[in-house]
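Entry for the shared binder. Reason: the reviewer on the internal report wants the predicted structure included alongside the sequence.
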Amino acid sequence: MTDGDGRCSWAASSEQMAAYHDLEWGVPVRDENQLFERLTLEGAQAGLSWSLILAKREGYRRAFAHFDTAAVARFDDPDLERLMADAGIVRNRLKIGSTLSNARLLESLHQSGESLTEILWSFVDGATVHNAWATLGDLPATTAVSAAMSKHLHRLGFRFVGPTTCYATMQAAGLVNDHVTTCPRWRELGGGAGGGRTVRSKP
C-alpha cells in the first residue's frame, strides 16, 4: 500500500499526482479562495477520478477567475452557458451551477462577517488532526466530523458538499493529516511530533 520509500502509493500513479502528494495534500490551507477551490474541485470529483480533476485544475482556475469568490459570485446565466462549453472543466450543469451558487453564498457570508475558513476549521477546533493510519486501506471515506460538516454546510445552503466531499476537502486542505505513517510527509506535516492532535489508527 506504499511505494518503495514508504510514500502513499497513490502518489506513484503520475508525476502530477506525485507533485500534488508531495507539495499540497495535507498542507493546512486557511486562505478563503484556496479553500473555495478545494471544496469546488472535490465536489467536481463526485463520480469521477481525482486524476481527471487534477489534470483539469488549471482549466478550472481559468474558468472560475482563480476561485476569486467575489468574481465568481457575479457570474450570470450567459457565464453558465459559456462554462458549459468549456472543455477545460467537467461540463456538468449541476456541478457548475453549484459553484456559482456557492460563491454567491460565500459572498453573503463574508458580508455578515463570516468565512469559509472559520466554518471549516471550527470542525477540528482550529488545529490539524494527525491520524495514524498504517495503510491506505485504513483511511475512511467519511467520518462523523465530515458528516456534521456536510449537514452544517447544507443547512447554510451550500451544494455538492456531501460527507465524502467534505472529508476529501479536509484531507486536501490539511484539516486532517491522512498520509500513512510510513510516508515521509506524515512526519513532515507534524504527525507523531505533538503538533495538532494525533488519533490512533484502528486495529
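Summary line for the report: The mean pLDDT is 93.
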